[in-house]
Amino acid sequence: MSQPEAFGRYRVIRRLGSGSFATVWLAQDDLLNYPVAIKVLAENWAHQMDIQHRFLEEARILRQTDSTWLVAVHDVDVLPDGRPYMVMTYADQGSVTDLIRRGQLPLDEALRLLTEIGQGITVLHNHGTIHRDIKPSNVLLQSSPVGQRVLVADLGFAKAIDEASGFTAAAGTPGYMSPEQSIPGGDLDVRSDVYSLGAVAYELITGRPPSRPPVKVPPGRIRPGLPRALDELILSALSVDRESRPADAKTFTDRVRAIRTEPDLPKADPWWQRYQMPWRRTVTLAASLLLVAAGATASTGAPGMALTTVRDASQNILVNVPSVWAREFHTDLAAGPAAAGAGAGPGLLVATDADDWHSTEVPSYGVYATVMPGSRRLSGVSGADPCGGSPEERELHTPTWEGTVWDWPECNGGGAFTSAAVHQPGVPTTVYMEIRQPAYRPDVVNDIIGGTRLV
User: Fold this and answer.
1) Which residues take part in binding ATP (predicted)?
2) What is the pLDDT of residue 294?
């Protein structure tokens, strides 16, 4: 859909985003001198009455609940082509997904956000509604006179609790929806939302979404020093057996609030946890690596994210890595299944957790790179299938590098995975790279590859 000039009296400024069913625009209410977000049903659904009904039902629920913790609907109207649109609160600080991408949150801040998200879901449950699609990107953030304000949004899959025994289609987002939601016709209740709250809590605390159910790794294994009660609460919310979960969003939220108010709650991670580097690797690190520039800023798609430039002297390669990933270093990590068959050998790894680099259950985020003699396309990488699906293959041509990139935007519920085989124009040396990130960001991949140098 091309950018319209206005929706009624609302002057359109720019597009904020789009999904399968709708596009959201930033607009200005010139009469009241106030910014608003306008959600418009997508053109391909214009004549689907069931989709139009779902769209308008979302507006009705938000209008009727009228809560501090939910996006507000100010107006609803219909375009000349019959598509409905709703005028909503504009969240000027993006979403919780954007916040997580900037780096690990202080524990108190993560628990504050989780408490406010839980309060929004509690309002819905009290209204007799199940959200069914709770995830970080559906939790928006707005500036307010008293600080940042949480707004639960996108009720496109929401349903009345008294209709939950006969849903005919699976709904939700893999990685965040409860196991019972994946079964069409399954019997759902508010504990499906509790599972999703547990998944959001896991990501807020650790910076990464949980694995596919059953989730066995507590957040405290990824982020040491967490209260035991928090580990137990999140794992109980993520239980496959819903009888083992907290009874509803209010119960879950009350427990989060109680943990947050404990006097011995860690206020900040100790420096040795924030910049963790196992001492057993320091000799190898000193001999083989040189941190050329720790803290040089560059664009990685998240404002202000710093890049750390790392050198592997044994392979004569410099690699730029987002500093929030640069917690552990290896210079002799064996190649994973995606490259070993093509002849890639041991290489440099900079990651959040080197021991879990090849794990599908507890993925870490970072960059692996190895130098291989000769110009190789490594076409077998795509067939190695490290993520349970076919990759998106693209050719890379820049003044510095050319080659092939294979992207898996969703890798076993643990973020995104990218393989790349690139070489400098006219230079018969191939650099093979693997990049794991919490969410699919091709711009981050391009920045990492673009900052890589042979020295």
Assistant:
1) 39
2) 39
Q: Kindly state whether residues 80 and 45 are assigned to the same domain.
A: yes
Kindly tell me the sign of the dihedral angle through the C-alpha atoms of 241, 247, 248, 253: negative
In the chain the first and final C-alpha atoms are separated, in Å, by 47
Question: Does residue 77 sit in the same domain as residue 116?
Answer: no
Q: Where residue 333 falls among pLDDT bands split at 50, 70, 90?
A: confident
Name every residue whose Cβ is closer than 8 Å to that of residue 153 and which is 6 or more positions away in sequence: 70, 71, 88, 91, 138, 139, 140
Residues 244 and 280 reside in one and the same domain:
no
- 184/326 same-domain check: no
Q: Comparing C-alpha atoms, which of 402, 450, 455 is closest to residue 430?
A: 402
Check if the beta carbon of residue 194 is closer than 8 Å to that of residue 237: yes
Whether 320 and 447 have beta carbons less than 8 Å apart is answered as: yes
Task: State whether 280 and 413 are in the same domain.
Answer: yes
**234 and 221 Cβ atoms separated by less than 8 Å:** no
Same domain, 223 and 127: yes
The pLDDT confidence band at residue 365, using thresholds 50, 70 and 90, is confident
Asked if residue 39 belongs to a known ligand binding site, the reply is yes
8 Å CB contact between 333 and 353: no
Q: For 211-218, which contacts have Cβ atoms below 8 Å and span 24 or more sequence positions?
A: 211/360, 211/361, 211/362, 211/412, 211/413, 211/414, 212/175, 212/412, 212/413, 213/179, 213/238, 213/240, 214/238, 214/239, 214/240, 216/361, 217/361, 217/362
User: Comparing 28-37, 65-74, 405-414, which segment has the lowest mean pLDDT?
Assistant: 405-414
- Total number of domains constituting the chain: 3
Tokens in use for 441? 């960001």
Distance, in Å, from the CA atom of 415 to the CA atom of 437, rounded to the nearest integer, reads 6
Q: Which domain holds residue 422?
A: 275-454
C-alpha dist (Å) from residue 74 to 38, 67, 216, 374: 10, 13, 43, 62
Confidence of residue 25 (pLDDT cuts 50, 70, 90): very high
Listed as own residue / partner, the contacts of 10-15 with beta carbons closer than 8 Å and 24 or more positions apart are 10/36, 10/38, 10/87, 12/38
Regarding whether 210 and 123 lie in a shared domain, the answer is yes
Q: Which of 55, 88, 121 is the last residue of a domain?
A: 88
How far apart CA 383 and CA 358 sit, in angstroms, is 17
Give the CATH number, domain containing residue 160: 1.10.510.10
Among the candidates 53, 88, 123, a domain finishes at 88
